[in-house]
Amino acid sequence: QWLASTKNILGLAVEHVGIERGQFGLGARDAIIIMGIWTTIGGANMLLYLAGISNIPQELYEAAAMDGAGKWAQFRHVTWPQLAPTTFFIVIMSFIGGLQGGFEQARVMTLGGPARTTTTLSYYIYIKAFEEFQMGYASAVAWVLFAIVFAITLVNWRFGSRYVSY
């Protein structure tokens, strides 16, 4: 809960510069978004891209260089098409994670506040089920979330797979 407090080291440091507390920093929603982007890009997705790049045969780059391709052309015509399956997987997983995720950030950083501006759908399900004890309602919301995730995954699979060749 101390993360949601206005009395923190950063707030005390900027007071000495002449900036009043409350005028400095980001809002709660901005902090949640930045943390989500940072954990998504810097985490498993980066490892997936590194694994995908390491599996691209070196002969493809050599053939492109012999054809006169520069670094940009090699990236555009060799690296990016070879990473299409990885990108396709990451896009699907990011959509799913974006709709289901955010519980940890909302719970730890802001407790869903102020005025429920950072309450994500997964945190809302948690509140309804385990704090307000409305299990049936929470289950219904979870099923709606499942239907949305499933529909988006099917659409992504249908239209995204045309750009992927294995």
What does this 3D model show about the protein?
The protein is mainly α and 166 residues long. It has a single domain (27-163), classed as MetI-like fold (Orthogonal Bundle). The chain is 70% helix and 0% strand. It has 8 helices and no strands. The protein is flat, with a radius of gyration of 22 Å. Residues 1-5 have low confidence and may be disordered.
Task: Summarize it.
This protein has a single domain, classed as Orthogonal Bundle (MetI-like fold). Helix content is 70%, strand content 0%. It has helices at residues 9-15, 28-54, 58-66, 71-82, 84-100, 103-110, 121-131, 135-160.
Count of structural domains? 1
- At the first level of CATH, the class is Mainly Alpha
Radius of gyration computed on alpha carbons: 22 Å
Instruction: Please report the distance between the alpha carbons of the first and last residues.
Output: 47 Å
**What is the general shape?**
flat
Helix/strand/pairing category: mainly alpha
Order of helices and strands: HHHHHHHH
SSE map:
Blueprint: H1 9-15, H2 28-54, H3 58-66, H4 71-82, H5 84-100, H6 103-110, H7 121-131, H8 135-160
Helix pairs in contact: 2-5, 2-6, 3-4, 5-8, 6-7, 7-8
Which features characterize this protein?
0% strand; flat; 166 residues; MetI-like fold; mainly alpha
